[in-house]
Each structure stands twice: as C-alpha cells, then as structure tokens.
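subagent[fold] <- orchestrator: predict structure for attached chain, return tokens only, no commentary.
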Amino acid sequence: MIDFTNGKLMAFILFDILGLSFAIWWLGGRVKSKISEVEKRQEKAWHKNEEE
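subagent[fold] -> orchestrator:
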C-alpha cells in the first residue's frame, strides 16, 4: 500500500503532476500555432486560386 504521509513521495508526485501539466500546456500551444500557420497558408492558396 502507498504511504501518503511520506513527504518525499508526495513531493515526487507533485513534481510529476506539475511536469506533465507543463508539457501538456506547451504541446497544446505548439499544436495551436501550427494549426493557425496551416490555416493561413491554405487561405493564401485559396485566394491565389480565386485570382486565376
């Protein structure tokens, strides 16, 4: 059974949770920026095709 009164264990679990939260936040930001880049590129391509 896990001893939740162990301070080192709780610090380790907290560190892991914070690390995972930061990684998810950072990766989510990267995905959003890539999606916006692709949308801008597609919009330019569509406008280019309309002009032709």
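orchestrator: received. Logging for downstream: The two ends are 70 Å apart (CA to CA). The mean pLDDT is 92.
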